[in-house]
Amino acid sequence: MRVHVINLEASLDRRQYLCAQLDRLGIDYSIFKAIEPPQAKEWLERYDERRYLRNTGRKASPGEIACFGSHAALWRKSVATGEPLVVLEDDVEILPTFPRALAEAARLIRTYGFLRLADNGPSRHVRATEMKKAAEFSIVWYSRYAFGSMGYAISPETAAAFLAHSAAVTGPPDLFIKRFWEHGRPLYGILPAPIGFNKFGEAPVIAPRRYVKPRTSLRIERFMNRLSGAIARARFNASVRASHRKGRPMT
Predict the structure, then answer these.
(1) What pLDDT is stored for residue 249 in this prediction?
(2) Could you give the 3-state DSSP secondary structure of residue 237?
């Protein structure tokens, strides 16, 4: 299962740093030249500002929309080739366990469809349930998913489902993935995570997010959006649990 690193052509320092880590561990990988705003016409046209505001409380930057396009381009590659693949952003730190985790991900990705490879960070809201042991790792199911799209393995079937629900860009890629009740694919992961943030994670190449004080109408919309999302998430999780009780992952 090939690893694809999303990297802006101008970000040579990030590329060199990450490639050195992958080369040292003997990982087979490709550099995916990240889509930039001038080449992101398709995704800029799909931008739904009202829904983006409702989901995030802010407007999108062109760089964020282009970032979504880069992830979507790799989902398309998986669908076109019929092969699973790994997506890495270029601000990850490759841990020594990565080759072994990659081998387990390659073995299990057709079963689970999506496997997060990144650490969950400090969020207290993440909910992960162990599904099975896989060598030194655990495969977990996320009933509440962490933010971040820095590293994951994806099957062609899950990639197709993601693309089918990308007619409108309503959030950055990590928020899109996180809202599993909308794209309809449960999210699994490998723990302990085999990747973390590297030194470049503190200096994002996308323009800083700018929040403005929302109008009352938008605050109400955001509240209702969170409420409806919580209900939809609970219903979807109930169906996943029912599938798990029958002894099989829902994919």
Answers:
(1) 78
(2) helix
Separation of alpha carbons 210 and 202, rounded Å: 17
Range 47-66 burial, b when 16+ CB lie within 10 A, else e: beeeebbbbbeeebbbbbbb
DSSP string of 132-165, one letter each residue: EEETTEEEEEEEEPPS--SEEEE-HHHHHHHHHT
pLDDT band at 205 (very low <50, low <70, confident <90, very high): low
Confidence of residue 139 (pLDDT cuts 50, 70, 90): very high
Please return the burial class of 139, using the count of CB atoms within 10 Å of its CB with bins 0-12, 13-18 and 19+: buried
Instruction: Kindly tell me the number of DSSP H helices and DSSP E strands found in the chain.
Output: 9, 10
Q: How far apart are CA 236 and CA 185, in angstroms?
A: 9
H or E stretch at 114: strand 114-116
What's the predicted TM-score (pTM) here? 0.92
